[in-house]
């Protein structure tokens, strides 16, 4: 790779504790997922990655507080095309927007999903968005899985983006999720503390992994809001932000999220699941995606410092599934969400 193919503007950052010991090529590939590991290695070979001001090798293992500077090649099509996709705005000011993301929407363009994403919609609705996450992810500070609904913060400028990212890193942004799960947890409330890493054979999934196998700290608090015969509505508060954390943790304790194909083995909830296979309309689908919703968000405004506390109501499919559970499976005691 020749220098003219590289961006004139380097990305600069400092290695955090959770990344210590990782190979620099793997570290950069995870930090910049739009680039393959082989491209990252070519960038390193071209001398376009500096560690503490010095060129490095792909095999270098990063250390705490290493200063990394990297010049990346320009992506072939950096800016996703604007698309007129409706957005439900929960909160907006001059610095940020909070969206209630619908089910089925991918947050940013990636392999297999080059259009119809939240970023495509943002490009249509907003003239200015942060570029701190790269030109292909304008405004994106954090993500939700494609089939997870609910609150997602969008930054309109880079200062807002950096301050929000710091709040996420320091665990100052508090999120609550609502989930419908299989089975009924015995305890009214508890927490799950199990390290999470990539699944050993399926790289699209995460799994409970020991630290020596790549598992990272992950803690999820949960509270049972309603009990049904064979099902429950739970509120989850993640203390960490690992990929698929709530989905993995709930499956680990034997209460996977309903219709979560990856972690429950089933991709839908039907009337027959509640009333039996011989019931009228047994094949009617109540849920065809994981029943997980980012319900509440609390943070300090990155510019003013005042507290923002926001909520998004349950989406229609979860409302309908919950109503069916209350009707056919007998709602138990517990406060409404």
Structure description:
The chain has 337 residues and is α+β, with helices and mostly antiparallel strands. Strands 5, 6, 7, 8, 9, 12, 13, 16 and 17 form a 9-stranded mixed beta sheet that branches. The chain is 20% helix and 26% strand. Strand 5 and strand 6 (96-101) form a beta hairpin. Helix 1 packs across helix 2 (37-45). It has 3 domains: 3-70, Roll (Structural Genomics Hypothetical 15.5 Kd Protein In mrcA-pckA Intergenic Region, Chain A); 89-169, 2-Layer Sandwich (Pseudouridine synthase); 174-298 and 311-328, Pseudouridine synthase (2-Layer Sandwich), CATH 3.30.2350. The protein has helices at residues 24-31, 37-45, 118-125, 158-169, 245-252, 261-264, 271-275, 316-328, and strands at 11-14, 49-51, 54-55, 67-70, 89-92, 96-101, 149-155, 174-182, 189-193, 196-198, 206-208, 219-228, 231-238, 269-270, 285-287, 292-300, 307-311. The protein is globular.
Morphology: globular
Number of folding domains? 3
CATH top-level class of the largest domain: Alpha Beta
What structural category do the secondary elements indicate? alpha+beta
Low-pLDDT stretches are: 333-337
Series of H and E elements: EHHEEEEEHEHEEEEEEHHEHEEEH
Main beta sheet, described?
A: 9 strands, mixed
| Percent strand | 25-35%
Number of helices: 8
Mean pLDDT: 91
Keywords, separated by commas or semicolons:
single chain, about 325 residues, alpha+beta, Structural Genomics Hypothetical 15.5 Kd Protein In mrcA-pckA Intergenic Region, Chain A, Pseudouridine synthase, 3 domains, nine-stranded mixed β-sheet, four-stranded antiparallel β-sheet, 8 helices, about 20% helix, globular, disordered C terminus
């Amino acid at each position: 790779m020749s220098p003219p193919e590289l961006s004139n503007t380097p990305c600069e950052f400092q290695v955090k504790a959770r990344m210590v010991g990782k190979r620099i090529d793997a570290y950069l590939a995870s930090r910049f997922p739009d680039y393959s590991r082989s491209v990252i290695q070519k960038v390193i070979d071209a001398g376009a990655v500096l560690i503490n001001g010095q060129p490095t090798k792909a095999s270098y293992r990063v250390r705490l507080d290493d200063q990394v500077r990297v010049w990346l090649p320009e992506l072939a099509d950096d800016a996703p095309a604007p698309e007129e996709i409706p957005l439900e705005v929960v909160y907006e000011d001059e610095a940020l927007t909070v969206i209630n993301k619908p089910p089925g929407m991918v947050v940013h363009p990636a392999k297999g999903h080059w259009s119809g994403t939240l970023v495509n919609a943002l490009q249509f609705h907003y003239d200015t968005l942060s570029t701190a996450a790269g030109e292909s992810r304008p405004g994106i500070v954090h993500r939700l899985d494609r089939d997870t609904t609910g609150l997602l913060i969008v930054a309109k400028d880079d200062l807002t983006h950096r301050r929000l990212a710091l709040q996420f890193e320091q665990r100052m942004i508090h999120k609550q999720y609502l989930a419908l799960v299989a089975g009924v947890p015995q305890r009214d409330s508890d927490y799950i503390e199990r390290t999470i890493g990539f699944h050993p054979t399926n790289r699209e999934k995460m799994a409970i992994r020991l630290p020596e196998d790549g598992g990272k700290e992950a803690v999820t608090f949960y509270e049972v809001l309603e009990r049904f015969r064979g099902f429950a509505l739970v509120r989850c508060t993640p203390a960490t932000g690992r990929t698929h954390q709530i989905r993995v943790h709930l499956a680990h304790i034997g209460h996977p999220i309903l219709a979560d194909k990856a972690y429950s083995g089933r991709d839908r909830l039907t009337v027959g699941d509640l009333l039996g296979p011989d019931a009228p309309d047994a094949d009617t689908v109540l849920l065809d995606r994981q029943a997980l919703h980012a319900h509440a968000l609390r943070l300090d405004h990155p510019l003013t410092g005042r507290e923002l506390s926001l909520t998004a109501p349950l989406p229609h499919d979860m409302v309908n599934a919950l109503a069916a559970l209350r009707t056919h499976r007998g709602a138990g005691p517990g406060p409404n969400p």
